[in-house]
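Predict fold of MSHA biogenesis protein MshN; 384 aa.
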Amino acid sequence: MSLLNDALRNAEQRQSAPGAQGAYVGQPRAVGERASGRPLAWWGLGLVLAGLGGVLIWLLWTQPSSSSAVIEPVSVSTGPIEARPSPDKSGSVGNEAPSTTTPTASADTTQTSAETTRVAAVEAPEPTQAPATDDRQSDAADNRPEPATAEPDTDGNEPEESATATGEAESAPSTSVADREPRDDTESTPVRKTRTTPEALDREAAEAIRAALNDGRIAAARRQLAGIVQSQPAPLSRAAWARHQLVAGQPRDALQWLPVSQTREHVDLRLLRARAQQAMGEPQAAIATLADNRPAVARAPAYHVTLATLYQQAGQPDRAAELWAGLIAHDNGRGGWWVGLALALESDGHPQRAARAYREALGLDNIKPALARFARQRLDGLEG
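Predicted 3D structure, encoded as tokens:
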């Protein structure tokens, strides 16, 4: 404004100078006005140019404040992005895109003068640096979102696929092992079956001997028995042969395969040996075979019945009565046991006790008719 005032003041001084010079020369007023018409026009044009120059100077001096005012919106728009970047990268990219164009427009407007560009660069360094930062952020943001969005999917899927593949790879060997284990068991099962025990071999041989004897193949049964006894005691095979021979009336042939070394530890063989001895007319030898190491009545009642019968035949009714009483204590529903007790008591000189035993036998429903008739006759003889 001071320059403008100085220019106006100079213009007024120039306007007033010609009039004074004309008055000083003494020329007439009309002539002076016509003669000074052109200089007035030039002076007016000079005033206009001076005014325009002053306005231009004023604009140049005030341009920095206006340029800073123009750039301020850019700094305001980019300021929040630098201060608090949005957690969403896609949103920050959208907000930064306009800021990259704003510095370009402001740079075009400020290129009208070198001074305004330098002033803008000095007074507003943040807005000029913000676009570069925003460009780098936008470039980084442009490069980050796609891998960021793609990586969770791949990261989320690849572990599952790898885990699934690993699980399948691990389950496949376990399944194959599980499949092989039953095969091993099934393959080892026949081995267990073929690895038979001596008892199993003895059972098989006894069945073969019985089948051969029933078919009349005595020699084959004898060979089977001879083969099995060479490797083990074979009590079942010996018993099968001895029973058949006793029924067939060949007690001596049965006794041949019933040695004392084998009958001492096997109750069934010991009983068969005693029956063979009894059949051969050797009751005392049979009693000696059965008297020692007697089993319990519940385990072998036939053993006690045979021994009681042998005592009765050998003239020892008291011992026979003792054995019959033990059998009846175990089971009092057997008619034959009651008749045996009655005979032992009658032979031992106890007729009343014998008669009572006969009555007990006749009172049973399961007594055989022949045995019932025998008991009735003996009872009638005692009472008559």
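The chain has three domains: 2-79+91-145, 198-293, 294-384.
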